[in-house]
Amino acid sequence: xxxxxxxxxxxxxxxxxxxxxxxxxxxxxxxxxxxxxxxxxxxxxxxxxxxxxxxxxxxxxxxxxxxxxxxxxxxxxxxxxxxxxxxxxxxxxxxxxxxxxxxxxxxxxxxxxxxxxxxxxxxxxxxxxxxxxxxxxxxxxxxxxxxxxxxxxxxxxxxxxxxxxxxxxxxxxxxxxxxxxxxxxxxxxxxxxxxxxxxxxxxxxxxxxxxxxxxxxxxxxxxxxxxxxxxxxxxxxxxxxxxxxxxxx
Length: 249
Prior knowledge:
Blueprint: E1 8-12, H1 18-28, E2 32-36, H2 61-72, E3 77-81, H3 90-95, E4 99-102, H4 107-120, E5 124-130, E6 133-139, H5 148-151, H6 164-167, H7 171-189, E7 199-204, E8 209-214
Parallel strand pairs: 1-2, 1-4, 2-3, 4-5
Antiparallel strand pairs: 5-6, 6-7, 7-8
Helix pairs in contact: 1-7
C-alpha cells in the first residue's frame, strides 16, 4: 500500500466499469485517482453502478462518485474532471497518469484512449461488457503485444453493435469487468507485466467459457507508431466491448 500511495491512475468513466474499478483501486491504497466523467446519474444506471444510489439520480456522476469515494476513503485524493474525454484533453490526461483505465461506454472514447496512451507511452487497460460477455485487453509500451487498432483499425460501423437498451447488461457482469480492470491496473502499478498484455480476454457468464486471443502488432499500425490522429467517429454503446462483438479476433 505504501508504494501505491504515490501512484496516479486515470479512470475514464465512473459507471458500470469505472465505478467498481475506482472502489477497488481506492481500497488498495492508490494515492490519486483522476476521474473523467461527463454524464448524469439515471435510474437505469443503478443496477450496475455501485457508486450511486437513488438520491443521486439527476446529479452529475463525477461529483457524486467523488463524494462517495472520499466518504469511504478520505486518504485518497480524487481529482474530478466533469468533462468529456476528447482529443483536446486526452494526451495531457494520459501523460500525467501512471496507468490509464478505460471504463468508458462508447467506441469513440475507447479508440481515443488507445491512441492517446500509445502516443505518450502509458499502459492502458481496456474493458467492455455487453449482455453477459466481458472483454479485456491491456496495451502497454513494452511492445510485447498489439493495441486496439492492431486488432481493429477503426470502430465498428453504425448499427453493427446493439445498444444497451437493445441488448441489456447484467449488473454482476459489469462488476466483474470493473474488478478485472482494477486488478490489471494494480499489477501494472507494481511494475509487473499485465496478465492481459497483448491478449484479448473474453468471458461469457452464462456458459462459464473464457478464451484468450493473442493480439500481435499489426505492421503499419499508426497508433503503435504514435502517429494516429486522435479520435474517430463512432456510435455510442453502453459499456461497449473493448473489441467489436462478433468480429474476428
